[in-house]
Amino acid sequence: MATRIDQLARPKPDLLKFPDRRSVYWLDELPASSNSSFTAFDLTPRWSKLAETKKLRPHFEDNRRSPGWKVSAAALKACPSDRVCALALPRMPAADWQPDRPLLPTVSVAVRTAKANAWICQLARPRKMHTAMTQLCSSSEISLSVLSLAKPSPRTHLLATPKQDHPQYCPDRLVSWPVAKSALEAVASERLQVLATPRLRKPLFEGFDPYRVSSAARAATASPRLQELALPPARRCRRR
Question: Which of 49, 153, 159, 212 is found 20 to 30 A from 232 (Cα to Cα)?
Answer without folding.
Answer: 212
